[in-house]
Amino acid sequence: MGVHDAPQWLLSAFQRSVQGAGATATTEQIRDVGQSLVDRWTEPGRDFHNLKHLVDVLVRVDELVEETHEPDLVRLAAWYHGAIFDSAERKAYANRGGEDEIASARLAVDELTSLGVPERSAQRVHDLVVALVRHSPDPADFDCAVLCDADLAVLAAEPQRYKAYLHDVRAEYAHLPVEHYVRARLKILDKLLGRPSLFSSPLGAAWEEPARQNISAEKQRLEKELAKLDAAALAAADADAAALEASDDAAAQAAVRAATQGS
């Protein structure tokens, strides 16, 4: 599926979830909001955090749906979790990968309440989205666990798909220098590997081993790449120092010659 190719079922699925959450708005009003979300997910610069990612998360939620208490709210949180996105800042990638969950959560409350979704339900969607900032759900909060697991499920993808995921993420941050990107990515991988578990739901636990294998392999590759970058930087620094020293020597010799000739 291309970035701009929305599946035919997508807006209907959004409509069902909004209505399931208690909306009182008309079908047309709901679909208009859904289309505006699709437009957000297809904005330029979204090489990974795009419509395909949204669809993948929705599909993963449905794979885990039997563990949820309020599935429509979980689906709506998936719709909104990356609605507002900006990869422009280096710190954005190092911290949250460009997704602005806080702003996205506020957007969810504003739009859902405008559609007549009860405030409690809209606030619950807000809280689910905000929980993705840390990806550390309360074990007793099954809805939050399912959403977090669905969002991280790509980490457990089979090798070729994981490779494509890495390509898309790098393309999304092509404006970052290679060294900055590698260091930021390694920081993220270390945080992931340092967690007792990546997935919190019982069904999502099946993704734990393949995800850790993918992350560990990527970390090993990036550490080798960083070592090469550091070695190249050191060699360049040594070359610059040698060139400066040679220049200083030449200047000193010229000064001596000038002094000798003057005398």
TrEMBL record:
The keyword Magnesium does not apply. It comes from the Bacteria. Residues 212-239 form a coiled coil. InterPro entries: HD_phosphohydro. Keywords: Coiled coil. Gene3D superfamilies: Hypothetical protein af1432. The keyword Coiled coil applies. This is Metal-dependent HD superfamily phosphohydrolase. It comes from Cellulomonas biazotea.
